[in-house]
């Protein structure tokens, strides 16, 4: 994970401050050992040496943390170790402080007490800075991971929304295509017309799969298999008859057929005998475009009986 330069700069400043305080504590411990080595007992010498080693380890480890790349879990382990040793030594020295033996001379005794106070305060200051750094590091890592989780959650929601919209659009396209293309009982795709026919006209032509009557000479009906059908004038509506249910025209879908498109077949159907309504229908079939087999809308003065 990439971290901002501002955070890395603040981290380096904090570690540098702790390093400076640790070096200052090391200097004070060295002075105390050099000045009061003969006047102190062995237990007090061991305590001072232990605290000197603690701050020396801190002063060595912090520059390494500044130079290497930042890893939260490695920083947590290292600072947990530093906190354990610092809190242990500082607590022990605080407990031992009232009974710490100083020289009998008043001046030396005063200097010894003052040095011990400086060492105690400085040691706890270093420990407090370590605690503050660990708390700040924990808060930063928590907020960074929470922001990353929220961002990943938002990305997942956007991805699901895009997936749902794609699925919805595909469903709509399939639903729209299902109104024009279906598979007949034999398995071959075919165009389907949906008409609710209330009556059967004597002008029914079984070769066309339908029946046309009514309209004006300018109105045209595009049959899915046989092209454009001119409509002669009639007072009744335009009806394409096959059944009350969906009409299987038996026209294979252009996309489902791998054969080359058939050329227009010039054929003329003879004029039919007029029925009771006196209507004749002349047919001029044409080839249907391979790109799409669709039924063109009929501009008419009377509505088409259709569902």
Automatic annotation (TrEMBL):
Keywords: Membrane, Transmembrane, Transmembrane helix. Residues 158-189, 254-295 are annotated as: Disordered. The chain crosses the membrane at residues 12-34, 46-67, 117-142. The lineage of its organism: Eukaryota, Fungi, Dikarya, Basidiomycota, Agaricomycotina. The keyword DNA-binding does not apply. This is Uncharacterized protein. The keyword Membrane applies. Residues 274-285 have a biased composition (Low complexity). Signal peptide: none annotated. Residues 167-178, 286-295 have a biased composition (Polar residues).
């Amino acid at each position: 994970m990439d971290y901002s330069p501002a955070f890395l700069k603040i981290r380096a400043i904090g570690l540098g401050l702790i390093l400076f305080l640790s070096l200052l504590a090391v200097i004070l411990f060295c002075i105390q050992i050099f000045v009061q080595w003969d006047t102190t007992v062995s237990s007090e010498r061991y305590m001072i040496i232990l605290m000197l080693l603690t701050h020396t380890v801190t002063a060595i480890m912090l520059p390494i943390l500044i130079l290497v790349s930042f890893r939260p879990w490695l920083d947590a382990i290292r600072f947990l170790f530093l906190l354990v040793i610092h809190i242990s030594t500082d607590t022990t020295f605080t407990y031992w402080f009232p009974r710490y033996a100083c020289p009998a001379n008043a001046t030396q005794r005063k200097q010894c007490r003052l040095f011990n106070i400086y060492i105690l305060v400085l040691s706890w200051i270093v420990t407090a800075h370590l605690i503050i750094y660990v708390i700040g590091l924990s808060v930063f890592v928590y907020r960074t991971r929470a922001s990353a989780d929220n961002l990943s959650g938002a990305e997942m929601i956007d991805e699901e929304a895009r997936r749902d919209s794609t699925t919805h659009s595909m469903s709509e396209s399939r639903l729209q295509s299902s109104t024009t293309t279906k598979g007949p009982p034999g398995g071959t795709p075919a165009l389907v017309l949906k008409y609710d026919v209330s009556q059967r006209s004597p002008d029914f032509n079984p070769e066309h799969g339908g029946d046309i009557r009514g309209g004006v000479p300018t109105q045209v009906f595009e049959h899915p298999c046989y092209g454009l059908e001119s409509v002669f004038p009639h007072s009744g509506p335009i009806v394409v008859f096959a059944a009350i249910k969906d009409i299987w025209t038996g026209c294979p879908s252009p996309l489902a057929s791998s054969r080359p498109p058939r050329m227009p077949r010039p054929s003329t159907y003879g004029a039919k005998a007029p029925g009771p309504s006196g209507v004749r229908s002349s047919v001029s079939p044409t080839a249907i475009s391979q790109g799409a087999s669709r039924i063109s809308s009929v501009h008419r003065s009377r509505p088409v009986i259709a569902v």
